[in-house]
Amino acid sequence: MDGAVALGLRQNAAQFSLLVAVNALVGGMLGQERTVLPLLGERVFGLRAYTAGLSFVLVFGLAKAATNYFAGTLSDRCGRKPVLIAGWLVAVPISPLLIWAPAWAWVIAANVLLGIGQGLTWSTTVVMKIDLVGPSRRGLAMGLNEAAGYGAVALTAMVTGYLAQYHGLRPAPFLLGIAFAAIGLGLSARFVKETHGHAKFEAACHETRADLHGQLTNRDVFLQTSFREPALSSASQAGLVNNLNDGLAWGLFPLLFAGAGLPVGRIGVLAALYPAVWGAGQLFTGALSDRWGRKWMIAFGMWLQAMALAGIAMSHSFAAWAAAAAALGAGTAMVYPTLLAAIGDVAHPTWRARAVGTYRLWRDGGFAVGALVAGLVADLLGVRAAIWAVAALTAASGLVVAVRMYEPHRPKEHAHG
């Protein structure tokens, strides 16, 4: 098997491109909710408390975070492809549940399934791309993966906004999700190939640190990634805070914009602008981190996000919100693929999937933390106060990276491939 394996983006272009397309469909499943679901909770199910309205973000974050962890362990044990297919099978009932939900509890159930499905599918496409490309193009690979996923989030958020404006909040916006799930399952089952052999091949020539050798237990991997290893643990906390502010954007921004009198179509444009810049920006930021390194790309990205959130909290017009949303997307683009690449840099190939799973446990736990923090502060002090609070947390997270993280990627040590 090893003799037939080659690492590199060019050498695995066909499979890599297929996985990019699959992850775009994964992103589309998330995007169908970004504009419509907060409005559905308020206008159809009569939710008034922000904490109650953010419950769908909370359960999504908890389900996805837990699933991310187990997805890494399962993909090391059973292979990547079975985990990817399982994720798409979980995703199939989500859109029908949202279309026919007679009560908010059904929406909550759909978002538990969404979290599980996203944890299995997105985690696995990340690990498979890291397997394929090898060390020298890891940032570019993650940039392409996340650009496809969040580009699809943005496009779907915008399209569903206009569908909702002209055809109602249900069922039209969620018909897209039915198509995404069917196509994603078909592509994954029929055309995606197993990549576990690539990770084993890379492990044979991986330079090993004494504390990060290839025989770490699951407990050791969790502790190193979460707390002990400076680069891994710094990345984990930054990922949590990044998705904390994404949960805020998902759950509260549409309500802030609607409260200012914007129509659903324009709310959809604003909801799409942030992930659109985020998605497109990753085409450049991931590759730049291969050349310049990871640490300062992450720190400055967190600080740019904090400034953008402050801009949203201070603004009252569509144009100002659009500029701040674009800045938020740019900051997130600097951070998102770079954090994943940093995990791949430090983790040993034999337990890299588990390290990615642990990192994504913390990162997507940020959705749940964001739902609680933003909901409670918004109920007590208002939506703008919640945005200010998250901006402060994001600035502090960038400071942790600046102080604690060393540079995990040294470009001159890797040949181009």
Automatic annotation (TrEMBL):
Q: Which PROSITE patterns match?
A: MFS, SUGAR_TRANSPORT_1
Task: List, alphabetically, the Pfam families matched.
Answer: MFS_1 (PF07690)
Q: From which organism does this entry originate?
A: Candidatus Mycolicibacterium alkanivorans
Q: List where the protein spans the membrane.
A: 12-30, 50-71, 83-100, 106-127, 147-166, 172-192, 296-314, 320-340, 361-381, 387-406
What protein is this chain from? MFS transporter
All copies of domain Major facilitator superfamily (MFS) profile, residue ranges: 1-196, 231-417
Q: Where in the cell is it found?
A: Cell membrane
Q: Is Iron-sulfur among the key words of this record?
A: no
Q: Which domain of life is it from?
A: Bacteria
Give the record's membrane topology: Multi-pass membrane protein
Give the keywords, sorted. Answer: Cell membrane, Membrane, Transmembrane, Transmembrane helix, Transport
Matches recorded under InterPro entries: MFS, MFS_dom, MFS_trans_sf, MFS_Transporters, Sugar_transporter_CS
Q: What is its main location?
A: membrane
